Amino acid sequence: MNTNIQELGEVLASPKNIVIVPHKNPDGDAIGAALAVYHYLNILGHNAVVISPNEYPDFLKWMPGSESVLKFDSKRKAAKSLIENADLIFTLDFNALDRVEDMKPTLKKSEAAFVMIDHHEQPDDYATYVYSDPKMGSTCEMIYHFIDTLGHRNKIDKNIATCLYTGIMTDSGSFRFPSTTSITHRVVADLMDRGAENSDIHSAVYDTNGLSRLHLLGCALKNLVLLEEYNTVYITLSRSELEQFGFKKGDTEGFVNYGLSLKDVRFSVIFIADTQEDFIKISLRSVGDFSVNEVAREHFNGGGHINAAGGRSDLSMEETIAKFRELLDNYKEQLTT
Ligand code: 5GP
Ligand code: MN
User: Fold this and answer.
1) Pocket flag, ligand 1, residue 57 (CB < 6 Å)
2) pLDDT in tens, the chain (337 residues)
3) Per the database record, which ranges form the DDH domain (predicted)?
4) Which ligand is located closest to the Cα atom of residue 124?
């Protein structure tokens, strides 16, 4: 779906107050898209600011513009006032206002026009300007096409190129997921020509692990359970394990993918206890046409894409695992034939 993007170009012809919002617990794609749009809109002469619902991992903090990102949960007053005064609100890398959690009531109250640029399935209809395409591998790739559609490819400078490259790289598993197309590679080539330093960006994201992350990975892999009869694996990380290994935000990013490296496995899930509140964050991944978006939506109050989705459970870890093992029977045929 692609509505009114040209019309949005006309709205952007005069200076506006603009707030840019990624989803809660933003990943590389969400922060990359938000910061790229931030740089782009400020180049156009707008007064643009990124407000993230909460903090994001250290391995994304080097990104150009990162120091300007306001966190809603710690700077509520300033953030609310910016949202109240906004003419336009860009919501990036999500398509339902639930994804910003505590920030939702403030956004709902705003009279600004909403823009949605996103690649998840089943978008809600809160936005006036919508560019939604679940076939796209990343929101950052869509931001590139958005800027190009508005005739501004030449405004993509080193900062914008760096942010977009980061999001495309992280959401595509370094260009290996099936959503990576020849167009993705052309976009990435253009971003390199415009200043994105591919090797440095990869190192900045993936080669800055703290020891806590590697120890936690060891623990996660030890906890991995293979359910051969369902071609499924799951991993658990309890609160005490997270505490034992000095968990920091972002440390568990990507762990769920290890499950899919096992031969014949089609479905991999990780259950991670929250360290502050009483719930369990769930990440689901699949290969082929098994839809984890459906599983997350139906059973775990979440959603996402066919091969990557997330959700949560308010049950205990034991109860959550029991529920998960039970529901697998409903999917046995899809997982084994
Ligand atoms: P992750 O497992 O990396 O947190 O998320 C995988 C994908 O599912 C991402 O595209 C993410 O935006 C989406 N996702 C993660 N958690 C949720 C959730 O609670 N609700 C919805 N609708 N999508 C989610
Ligand atoms: Mn994304």
Assistant:
1) no
2) 577 888 999 999 999 999 999 999 999 999 999 999 999 999 999 999 999 999 999 999 999 999 999 999 999 999 999 999 999 999 999 999 999 999 999 999 999 999 999 999 999 999 999 999 999 999 999 999 999 999 999 999 999 999 999 999 999 999 999 999 999 999 999 999 999 999 999 999 999 999 999 999 999 999 999 999 999 999 999 999 999 999 988 899 999 999 999 999 999 999 999 999 999 999 999 999 999 999 999 999 999 999 999 999 999 999 999 999 999 999 999 999 8
3) 17-168
4) 1
* CA-closest residue to ligand 1 atom 17: 310
Residue nearest to atom 6 of ligand 1 (CA): 309
Q: Which ligand has an atom closest to residue 120 CA?
A: 1
**CB of 310 sitting under 6 A from ligand 1:** yes
Residue with tokens 């080193």: 158
Whose CA is closest to atom 22 on ligand 1? 303
**What is the number of the ligand 1 atom nearest to the C-alpha of 96?**
22
Beta bridge partners of 311: 282
CA of 309 relative to ligand 1 center, distance in Å: 5
How is residue 138 written in tokens? Answer: 């990343």
Segments making up each domain of the chain, as ranges: 2-206, 211-336
Helix residue ranges per DSSP H, the chain: 5-11, 28-43, 76-84, 104-109, 139-149, 158-171, 182-193, 198-206, 211-223, 239-244, 257-260, 292-299, 317-327, 332-336
Of ligand 1's listed atoms, the one at least distance from the Cα of 119 is 10
53 lines ligand 1 (CB under 6 A): no
Domains 2-206 and 211-336 share a fold: no
Could you tell me the pTM of the whole model? 0.93
ipTM at complex level = 0.95
Atom 16 in ligand 1: residue holding the nearest Cα: 310
What strand order describes the sheet that includes 232-237? 225-227, 232-237, 267-273, 280-286, 308-313, 303-304
Return the ∠ at Cα 38 (arms to 36 and 43), rounded to 5°. Answer: 95
Q: Which CATH superfamily is domain 2-206 in?
A: inorganic pyrophosphatase (n-terminal core) (3.90.1640.10)
CATH code for 211-336? 3.10.310.30
